[in-house]
Write a structure and sequence with these properties.
Strand 6 and strand 7 form a beta hairpin. The mean pLDDT is about 95. The longest helix has 20 residues. The chain has about 325 residues and is of the alpha+beta class. About 40% of the residues lie in helices and about 20% in strands.
């Protein structure tokens, strides 16, 4: 539990809005909720809130927070720091939030408080090498198949396509974050896998995904878009995101298209009948994995799952959960 975040957020809330917050000793029946906070307003009214505490959030957290806010009322997210676009998305999702600087959005139909004037200086932390753009490729390999933890450093480096010197730093980083423990001498296993997956998606969104983006396109016309399944994808070109999810589950009609390829822009335009458009609904990226795919047209399920979750779309989150249950239960 990030008690430093809670204490500082409640302290600053009282300074900013004369609302006193008190953390309550509360043992939830499940692990979805971290605890409770009692808010005491100037008029002496009190409200007990169910609380989720996060150091940081990204788009992929929004659907779960929205679900919690519907189930546990009133609900309050306490978070270290929020980007402005995420504040807007939380508001749209009817999720109350409080950050470390004492900024707050709270609406429980009886009380409405909205303060967003105070800046939060990011806490400077030494970067964990497991979650750099290079480390993320190695961690992806472990998340895809844990057997790679039993390979030599050289084998891991060759498979992940990274320099040999990175492997020890990645393993040390995972140990520091309590995601890796030793089984026997030189043999390891992952623990807290679902938390590791969440941490990986957050770091992937910040560190690796922007560097993989090639460009945005759109189909030449609506008829071509309707026929997307019949495109002839050659070697090293795969559907991710919504089209990948539809091919894996048959339960999602794509509105946006994610394509992974090593082809040139000219080849993409010619072979797949696409035209450049910075606002187009076809996002093209370089592949970042080195493992085999179960479907020659689709990126690995973990890639598709990540693509769906990072959209922050509740519809995509539901299909991502289906993919998790069908293909990723080894990460439970």
């Amino acid at each position: 539990m990030e008690f430093k975040i809670i204490d500082k957020a409640l302290e600053n809330l009282e300074k900013n809005a004369t609302i006193r917050g008190k953390w309550e000793n509360y043992i939830p029946e499940n692990k979805e909720i971290d605890g409770k906070v009692e808010l005491r307003f100037e008029n002496k009214e009190r409200t007990e809130c169910f609380v989720e505490v996060k150091k940081e959030i990204r788009n992929h957290h929004i659907p779960k927070l929205q679900k919690l806010a519907k189930e546990y009322k009133p609900f309050l997210l306490i978070v270290d720091r929020l980007y402005p676009n995420l504040k807007n998305k939380l508001k749209e999702a009817h999720v109350n939030w409080l950050d470390r600087a004492g900024n707050i959005y709270f609406n429980d139909n009886q009380h409405f408080v909205w303060i967003d004037l105070h800046t939060t200086t990011p806490t400077k932390e030494k970067k964990n090498r497991a979650f750099t753009k290079t480390g993320l490729k190695v961690v992806f390999l472990f998340l895809h198949d844990e057997k790679w933890l039993d390979k030599t450093y050289r084998e891991i480096a060759e498979k992940a396509d990274v320099a040999l010197g990175n492997i020890k730093h990645v393993l040390d980083g995972l140990k520091q974050q309590n995601f890796l423990v030793a089984k026997t001498k030189g043999k390891y296993k992952l623990i807290n896998k679902k938390k590791l997956l969440d941490r990986w998606i957050t770091a992937f969104t910040d560190e690796l995904k922007p560097r993989l983006h090639i460009d945005n396109f759109e189909f030449l016309n609506e008829a071509e878009e309707r026929e997307w399944k019949h495109l002839n994808l050659e070697k090293e070109t795969f559907w991710g995101g919504e089209p990948g999810a539809d091919l894996l589950t048959g339960n999602l009609r794509p509105a946006n298209y994610t394509l992974y390829t090593r082809k040139t822009k000219a080849a993409l335009m010619k072979e797949h009948k696409l035209k450049p458009n910075p606002d187009g609904n076809v996002e093209v990226y370089n592949p970042y994995w080195t493992v085999d795919t179960p479907n020659e047209k689709v990126a690995p399920p973990l890639v598709v799952y990540t693509d769906l979750m990072t959209t922050g779309d509740p519809r995509n989150a539901n299909i991502a959960e289906e993919i998790y249950e069908r293909f990723l239960t080894h990460l439970a």
